[in-house]
Design brief:
Elements: E1 5-7, H1 9-12, E2 19-21, E3 30-38, E4 41-49, E5 52-57, E6 62-63, E7 68-74, E8 80-87, E9 90-91, E10 98-101, E11 104-107, E12 116-124, E13 129-136, E14 138-139
Amino acid sequence: MKPRVSVQDSALRNGNFSLRIDSVRSEDAGLYEARVAYNTEVQSCQVELGVITVTLSPPSPVVENKPLLLSCNSSHRASLVETRWFHNGRLVPTSGTFCSLHGALSILRPAMSDAGSWRCQLRYSDNEIISATYNLQILGFDGPTNPVVYAAAGSAAD
């Protein structure tokens, strides 16, 4: 996993033998064990790392009015019971232009107003709730509904 992992050598003297993983990947999920030997004494601990990913299909950039699929997946082992999606902090009703099915959200005709923070929340049969956020960017026209601009002859127009 080098060079994405590090241990703070200075913290070891204080009894902190934490492992830091930068840019966590799906394949990093699993059980980690740390063992520290000091003189004749051995201390150990185990930590399970769970990973959640949000992916976009087709990949960025998303073009206005072209269908897209946001998928939310987790390494959690229990059965998925419920998926909820939030856009800019508000719960998204899954009807009409938004269709949710087993961890995925389909947006049939994305608009500029659909850009921003999307959060999926997964609830499992063991009542574990896991969430992740994706910042959606959409390419499109964000101007007046009637794109007619008037300019005086001889002047500049934007």
